[in-house]
Amino acid sequence: MKRLAVLVAAAALITLTPVTASGARAVPVKRVRFGVARNWAGYAATGGPFTSVSTTWTEPSIPCGANEHSAFASFAGIDGDGSSTVEQIGSLDTCRNGTVRHKGFFEMYPQSAFRIAKRLRGGDSLTASVTFNGGSTFTLTLVNHTAGWTFTTQQQSSQAQRRSAEAIVEAPTVSGRILPLSNFGQVNYNATTANGQPLANFNPEAVTMVTNTGAVKAQPTGISGGSFSVIWHHS
């Protein structure tokens, strides 16, 4: 029982650590029109209600220029497309002046995003999942298969509508401003499920990320079962 108490206390301390000092966070989709958004690229199933989502990918290695300030997030989430909350977990990386920082994070938007205080590096194999437990409780889990750790937290959201389920690459936001998207190359998502079924079963929307002028920043390939890729084009 004493060991359990120590583990619970440690988890509580983790949830008090902001994901970045600059306040970068992942937010609901900023849609331009159907299939096009300012901050999301990937696949989102809508309609719901959704009780679970899960996906697996390899964390990309990101080049970072000496004068560059950019960011990249990859997550599994419920809500965020057609609703004002997002229950999500994944990786949120920043490139600043030649230095890349890879971080695990979870976020119950509009609450703050929090850092997962465990080692994460480019090349690590990750699985992110969100599960609705009933009432207003969600379990968020991130597994680092390469480093051999699992992080799990239970969080509350009384506003969650569970209207969408998604696996997404995002250009994170700071104070309402979308940051330039780090060059992640290509992220391959596999074993992506919603409500225990392959995401493709829900006829999900393919979402392409664009700049303010309409140039493609990141675009998904076709989806087969639970597998697809998102390819970087522009910051």
List the helices and strands and how they pair.
Elements: H1 2-14, E1 31-33, E2 36-37, E3 40-46, E4 52-58, E5 69-78, E6 86-96, E7 99-101, E8 104-109, E9 113-116, E10 125-134, E11 137-144, E12 149-156, E13 164-170, E14 173-174, E15 177-178, E16 186-194, E17 197-198, E18 205-210, E19 216-220, E20 228-232
Parallel strand pairs: 2-18
Antiparallel strand pairs: 1-2, 3-13, 3-18, 4-10, 4-16, 5-6, 5-13, 6-7, 6-8, 8-9, 10-11, 11-12, 14-15, 16-17, 16-20, 18-19, 19-20
Number of domains: 1
What's the name of the CATH homologous superfamily? Answer: Peptidase G1
Task: Kindly provide the radius of gyration, computed on alpha-carbon positions and rounded to a whole number of angstroms.
Answer: 16 Å
**Name of the level-1 CATH class:** Mainly Beta
Question: Structural class, please?
Answer: mainly beta
Q: In the CATH hierarchy, what is the architecture at level 2? A: Sandwich
Mean pLDDT: 91
Number of helices, where a helix is a run of at least 4 consecutive DSSP H or I residues: 1
- Estimate what percentage of residues fall within beta strands: over 45%
Q: How do the SSEs run, as a string of H and E? A: HEEEEEEEEEEEEEEEEEEEE
Quick one: overall form?
globular
CATH topological fold name: Jelly Rolls
Query: What portion of residues is helical?
Result: under 10%
How many strands? 20
Kindly, what is the distance between the CA atoms of the first and last residues, rounded to a whole number of angstroms?
49 Å
- Biggest pleated-sheet summary: 18 strands, mixed
Low-confidence stretches: 1-16
